Amino acid sequence: LSDFRYTMQKRFPSILEVYYKSNEWSGIHGIRENDRMTWLSSKN
Fold this sequence. Notes:
mainly alpha
């Protein structure tokens, strides 16, 4: 699933931003940070 979001980040960053925001409004935090950490570690 984070691979899908990684692709979205490359192609449609504004859509991904809305996805993160809607989760944060729902009280779900940390998705953005988890993805960022996953992508950083997978590039190495």
